[in-house]
TrEMBL record:
It comes from the Archaea. It is a multi-pass membrane protein. One of its GO terms (cellular component) is membrane. This is YIP1 family protein. It is found in: Membrane. It comes from Halorubrum rubrum. The keyword Transmembrane helix applies. Keywords: Membrane, Transmembrane, Transmembrane helix. The chain crosses the membrane at residues 46-64, 76-109, 149-166, 178-196. Residues 25-190 form the Yip1 domain. The keyword Glycosyltransferase does not apply. InterPro entries: Yip1_dom. The lineage of its organism: Archaea, Methanobacteriati, Methanobacteriota, Stenosarchaea group, Halobacteria.
Length: 204
């Protein structure tokens, strides 16, 4: 999970340029991206991508609303830097693993053989699910500023990307795609990126 494999079998390239290209591609051509950019066992690029998205989200939040930064050091700037670092290095990997676990369990439940359907074992594996969850979070890089409408829009698009990725990688039916993707999206993007709180603000 923490190292690049030598032969990614069609997975993502390395470097900042490849990271930026992946961000644009998944936003613009998600089906093509998930079909060509997700490879078995090549999770490190996905982890790097998820960490970068979380860093951009947090940085956008603390810059536009410095009051959310806890007092960790005497300097507000230093405190903000520590928060961004903690989110990038700790919260992002943990959140990615938890969200992927929810997606995996949901996939197993949704992919039970019904009417001769394919079993979960015959579809994409867990590593592909981790990558789909990571790359689908791409819109959340723009959701840092605490504007409820912006966060809801980004969260909705991230959820759509997750559903597209699940269907592309695992070959699930539309209903099974919803059953597998919505719980993970609700936790990962709704709770992790405060989209649920933004919805409550709009409704309230």
């Amino acid at each position: 999970m923490n190292s690049w494999i030598e032969n990614p079998e069609g997975g993502r390239d390395r470097g900042l340029r490849a990271l930026g290209r992946a961000w644009v591609e998944v936003l613009v051509r998600p089906r093509r991206f998930f079909a060509n950019g997700v490879a078995p066992g090549d999770q490190a690029p996905g982890l790097t991508f998820a960490a970068a998205v979380a860093a951009a989200f947090t940085l956008g939040w603390v810059v536009t609303d410095p009051t959310v930064v806890p007092t960790i050091a005497e300097s507000t700037v230093l405190s903000a830097a520590v928060v961004v670092l903690l989110v990038t290095a700790l919260a992002a990997p943990v959140g990615l693993h938890l969200t992927a676990a929810i997606a995996t369990v949901s996939l197993v439940i949704a992919s039970l053989e019904v009417d001769g359907g394919l079993s979960f074992r015959e579809r994409g594996g867990v590593s592909e699910t981790v990558q789909v969850v990571a790359y689908a979070s791409a819109p959340m890089a723009l959701a840092g500023p605490p504007f409820p409408v912006l966060r809801v829009a980004c969260g909705g698009y991230a959820t759509l990307l997750l559903l597209v990725g699940v269907r592309t990688i695992h070959g699930t039916s539309p209903l099974r795609t919803l059953l597998a993707g919505v719980p993970a999206a609700t936790f990962g993007y709704g709770v992790g990126y405060r989209v649920v709180a933004a919805v409550r603000t709009l409704l309230g």
